[in-house]
Amino acid sequence: MKRFLCVLSALTMVLFVGSCSRSAAPQMTGGDDPKLTVHFIDVGEGDCTLLESDDEFVLIDAGERDYGEEVLRYIEDRGADELKYVIATHPHSDHVGGLRTVIDGIDTENFITVSCDSDTYTWEKLLRAVNQNNINQIEAEVGQTYSFGEASFTIMGPVSRDYESFNDLSVVTKVTCGDIGFLVMGDAEHASEYDIVDAGADLSADVIRCGHHGSSDASSDKLLRAVNPAFGVASCGEGNEYGHPHRETVQKFKTMGCPLLRTDEAGTIVAYTDGKSLRFEAENQDLSSYTCTAGEEKHTAEKLKYVGNKNSLYFHYSDCDGAINMKEKNKVFFDSRDEAVAQGYTPCPGCMP
Question: Does residue 245 contact residue 236 with C-beta atoms inside 8 Å?
Fold first, then answer.
């Protein structure tokens, strides 16, 4: 009987530890004291990114409300007792639902978002919690730069406040450490992406956190050409009902020869950089081969194809309406703008490739 009770006790402990392990930060080594660690936390069909540098922390979104406690424990497991900045990209619950739990559970110095007319319960409760916790509120403005540890982030969007969709109102940030950059897109879609590119800021980055969970409504050719990433990251839930990441987005990254890392496959993904090189680890995948060094030639965006019309002899960006609405039998593809021009095609006056 004693032997049976000991075995039963051991099994109970194993089951208990197993049931709790998902809420703890993955046991990843990180190597030799990285200057910046970026955690793409798996929150199912939602978004959550934790930035860590020199014991200072920035949180961008926190998934749905049910993930709030899990995100809070993850942050605490990293040794944080304060968040220097919390960024709420936009009011949708799959991004900000868990933030109220987080800011109620850990000291938060600053809260950054875009003012909007959302009146959802989740959004109003979050703003109330920000006030109740006496957190400094900052309106996101393009060009603002904030430092934490040995890194910084700059607000790149939204450029306008006149978008029809809350997705396009997403706060877009470029995170920089030395010569390595990350672009975190929230749920920004094509309208916002085009405006951000047209604003003329330097969008080049080694990693792009895909907008809207890898939806075909985001990650336009125009944006990807400006960013020219070495890696993409899509945050999405396994078997999600939306089909994220969409086939078009997956194919686009494949065409570029740019690996698309996915939380539905890899679980939480963590990137480490010393400001010169970059490497990844993940819960459920071996990502040891995914590395890059600042300044190395990528030219991934150059692999995006241009689409020509055999009848009109115009060529378009592949996400231009002229290309999307073109009959398949009239399409011809080019690997570069120079190739299209050399074959006698004229740039579309609309998308101006």
Answer: yes
Decide: helix, strand or coil at residue 81: coil
pLDDT of residue 77: 97
The closest alpha carbon to 123, from 102, 85, 92, belongs to 92
pLDDT of the residue at 56: 98
Give the Cα separation of 63 and 43 in Å (integer). Answer: 6
Burial class (CB in 10 A: 0-12, 13-18, 19+), 329: exposed
User: Average pLDDT by consecutive 10-residue portion of the chain (353 residues)?
Assistant: 41 35 44 88 97 98 98 98 98 98 98 94 96 98 98 98 96 98 97 96 97 94 93 96 92 89 98 97 96 83 83 88 80 86 93 86
* Tokens read off for 197: 């590119």
Whether residue 218 contacts residue 188, with contact meaning beta carbons closer than 8 Å, is answered with: yes
**Full-model pTM:** 0.84
Q: CA-CA distance, 152 to 336, in Å (whole number)?
A: 34
Q: Give the integer Cα–Cα distance in Å for 318 and 301.
A: 13
How many other C-beta atoms can be found within 10 angstroms of the C-beta atom of residue 16?
A: 10
Place of tokens 């055999």: 310
Sheet order of strands, 36-40 included:
136-139, 107-113, 82-87, 56-60, 49-53, 36-40, 269-273, 277-282, 291-293
Residues in the chain: 353
C-alpha closest to that of 234 among 226, 242, 145: 242
Residues 305, 309: Cα–Cα separation, whole Å: 13
- The residue type of 205 is A
